Amino acid sequence: MGLAILHFQAFAQSEIYATFEVQALQNATLTLSASGVVEEIFVAVGAQVKKGDKLLSLRAKDLKESVQVAKASLESLKVKYAFIASQYKRYEQSKDAIDLNTFEKIKSEYRASFFDLKRAEANFALQKELLDNTILYAPFDGIIAQKFVEVGDGVGAISSKLFMLESLHKKALIAFDSKYFNVVAVGDEFIYKVDNITQDSKLILNKIYPSIDKKTKKATAEAFIENPKIPAGTFGDGVIVPNVSRDSKITKQSGKL
Q: Based on the domain organization, do 86 and 213 belong to the same domain?
């Protein structure tokens, strides 16, 4: 039993070699649900964007005109409906004193006007949506990592890649020998090197992946990277330093058993 405890303690307190790859916490290849010709591009590679920022737009002269026509029609029907609704309410309040056919006619016009208004609202919303689909917006805060199109290019709906967007926040995926799977834990430090230069800041493991790669026999941990100068795609190596105080407590508890 004592040898087993000493063996575990030696394992737990040693530095564990690991390699790592830097990835963005979020990344996306951006496309549009509409097809057409690129009219404007509002960002360049390396630009930082906020969620909702406009990135690109397609030529959409006909759609813009359709939106204007739909809006004008909607405004006109709003006025018409307001007038007929007011007239209908007046007739309804005094319907016992007027001809029934006259009241039914006003009632029919009121209902028809209501449905005309709803159709106009739906058409305006549809035309706006079609126009909005020709504009690409940033889905989250990040940086433009790649740009695949230029002004004047034709793009297909969904099929054409436009930009690669990556979040500014990054993580390191840290691979280590799976024989240390039960030694490495959340909270352990990772001292890492980039281009064979040890970095001043240490990473703290925030996640241990529950499975082991069958081909490489490697386990994986994850840590957030605060250094904005380290780009996604960076590779390197380093050592995981298990928490000595934690492992000492485990050893003492095992000894009591």
A: no
